[in-house]
Amino acid sequence: MILTNTQENTPVLSNVGEVGEFRIRNSAKAFNILSSGLYANKIRAIIRELSCNAYDSHVAAGCAERPFEVHLPTSLEPWFSVRDYGVGLSHQQVVNIYTTYFESTKTGSNDFVGALGLGSKSPFSYTENFGVTAVQNGQMGVYTAFINEQGVPSIALMTESDTEEPNGVEVKFSVNDRADFEKFRSEAAAVYKWFVYPPTVTGASVSIQHPQYERENIVPGVHVTKDDYYNSGSYAVMGNIAYPVAVPNANANLGTLAGLLNFGLVMHFDIGELDFQASREGLSYIPQTIEAIRRRLEQVNGVLTQVLTEDANAVPDGWQRAYFLRQRVSSNRLWEAPAEQYAANTNFSLYGRNAKYPKLTVGELKEKYNIVLRAFRKSWNRSSGLSGRNAERDWNSPADSPASYYWTFGVDAESQFVVNDIKTGALSRAKFHWRDTSGSATVFVIEAADRAQPVLADEFFQAIQQPPATQIHKASELRAPERAERRKTRKDATILRLERRNEGKWSRRASDNDLVWREADHLSAFDNQETYYYVALNGFDAARTTMMDADVNASLRQFYKDGQTFDAIVLDPPKFAPSAAHADRAARAYKDINRLAFKILEPGGVLFTYSCSGGIGAELFHKIVASAGTDAGVDGYISERMQGAPDHPMTLTFPEGEYLKGLVVMKTANLVEKSERATMSG
């Protein structure tokens, strides 16, 4: 490799006296720094440097595709060696190379990886002696490189002879520490994964896995890895060596392009384009290196933006285009910057940090489309959690203005639209339809402002940039209660309202905040604009039902203190661990509530315990519940393992969707009791 020598701030000398040049003193300390102190990862450095020398020799001999040979240490063959079949070395070349630091035969061409004249001495970072066998034109020289009594590296010719061996060089040394055998194997795999032509490996077996790419040649020589793109840095590959890219002051040196480096780019550069550290363990971020990286990232960003623009423009409807951009970014966040750039370039308001969702005033809906909207929100974690939604108030408009209230339509899969095509009960039917569905939803029921005029639903959907057909429904097509059930409910039902025990009154007692069922009124007084709860009169005594708005941990402990027990307990806490980083803290919380539940559960009782934490896997959750039972001194049978229902699918590209899990446990006799019975029977 041709080394660049850029001189900056060259001084102008005049009227100077004697000039002295800096020198390096020949000392054991200096040689130790250059041989051993240079490398943080000594084993990887040896493998990398000797292998690059072998590859360079093959390039010089015109046989770059021919594999060189590497032997990894084993118990029966405890040595490491690299043997190439390149141009070989003469006696004089061996002496010059191995006795002179910064001596290299490769500084005149960018065809070669080496240049510094340090790699050939890298074995001294691990051992005090190693063997060199050099064959060139029928002459073989066997040498020993060693550290002499003064601590200075030396080399001695042991034998010299004629040979019919092919040209090449072999470097070999013993590996005496058995603990290093695995290190040589793993480091070899790490080094050779980037070699275009990996070596033939003998001794310990090693699996060389070349990088797998999500997308190849975004621009020539730039790929995206299939590694975890949430935590994947980028690499610059030059001469079979991969350097992690960590540009200092990246935002200042690269601007917005810096973000591309977070998403697993592998960028190949020609030898000589980048400068590197003397150890070859990282890049040297001189202006030349930074500029080369910048140019490559500019190419990548331009191509990605162009590709994304073409793909997005092919999607005709606004909602579908927003979905497309989100899906592209979620599949690989490398597309995040191009997607934002596309939204800015095209003024596409339905995507990005500055997204503006469709908004229409109540007056516009009525005057332009003959529409009145009624809406409700379905909570994701509550089967009966339906809450009404109203139009939002624009406080900058007069209260009596048609523009004073408006509706905003979130461009997402949660927004659902129901066109009323039945005489009555569209809102009630919609609530029934979504009441027991999984997930969350915001449902807009479209009704006629003037029943004598048609509803312009198609024009309305165009105005909000066309939601997908799968999110538009007819009221007549929604699930509705069976007629028999509806007749029975109307005949045999009482309306009950959930309210606080001391509603509207001030009290110091905490129990007065408990929630209780109370009869609201007769059925004839039912107002479908409000939310009520229906309880069939099938022998159920509402007076025996107590709803508590209380701290679950404190309540469980109080139940245990009071000696109160239960035949069945359901534990369905909120998400304790949104990610694996919160797993330890969440495990303690899950264990505590399950332990308390076991203590107040009757023998033969059933515990239904669940977790919706993505950071807690099913196996870990089982261990947590088992540990809780042990601490509570009980045992139990797991009668069922539970997971998300089929209507809560886990996709191939989003395994994190498998976060729902549960156990059904029947409590048996206490462990203490079991132990006593066993002692008595013995």
Number of helices: 16
Overall morphology? elongated
Percent in strands: 15-25%
Strand segment tally: 28
Write the layout of secondary structure elements.
Layout (H helix, E strand, L loop, with lengths): L27 H8 L6 H19 L8 E4 L6 E5 L7 H9 L29 E8 L2 E9 L5 E10 L5 E7 L4 H14 L7 E4 L9 E3 L6 E4 L9 E4 L2 E4 L5 H5 L10 E4 L18 H27 L4 H14 L4 H11 L12 E3 H8 L1 E8 L7 E4 L2 E2 L11 E4 L6 E5 L6 H10 L5 E8 L8 H7 L8 E3 L8 H10 E8 L14 E7 L11 E4 L9 E2 L4 H11 L3 E6 L11 H17 L1 E11 L6 H15 L1 E10 L17 E10 H11 L1
Parallel strand pairs: 1-7, 10-12, 18-19, 18-20, 25-26
Antiparallel strand pairs: 1-2, 2-6, 3-4, 3-6, 4-5, 8-9, 9-12, 10-11, 13-17, 14-15, 14-19, 16-17, 21-22, 21-23, 22-24, 26-28, 27-28
Helix pairs in contact: 2-4, 6-8, 13-14, 14-15
Describe the structure.
With 682 residues, this protein is α+β, with helices and mostly antiparallel strands. It has five domains: 28-203, 2-Layer Sandwich (Heat Shock Protein 90), CATH 3.30.565; 213-346, no CATH class; 359-477, no CATH class; 483-547, no CATH class; 552-680, 3-Layer(aba) Sandwich (Rossmann fold), CATH 3.40.50.150. Helix content is 29%, strand content 24%. The chain has 16 helices and 28 strands. The strands form six sheets. The protein has a seven-stranded mixed sheet with strand order 5-4-3-6-2-1-7, with helices on one face. The protein has a five-stranded mixed sheet with strand order 8-9-12-10-11, covered by helices on one side. The protein has a five-stranded mixed sheet with strand order 15-14-19-18-20. A hairpin with a 6-residue loop joins β1 (69-72) and β2. α14 (583-599) packs across α15 (618-632). The longest helix is centred in the middle third of the chain and has 27 residues, at 287-313.
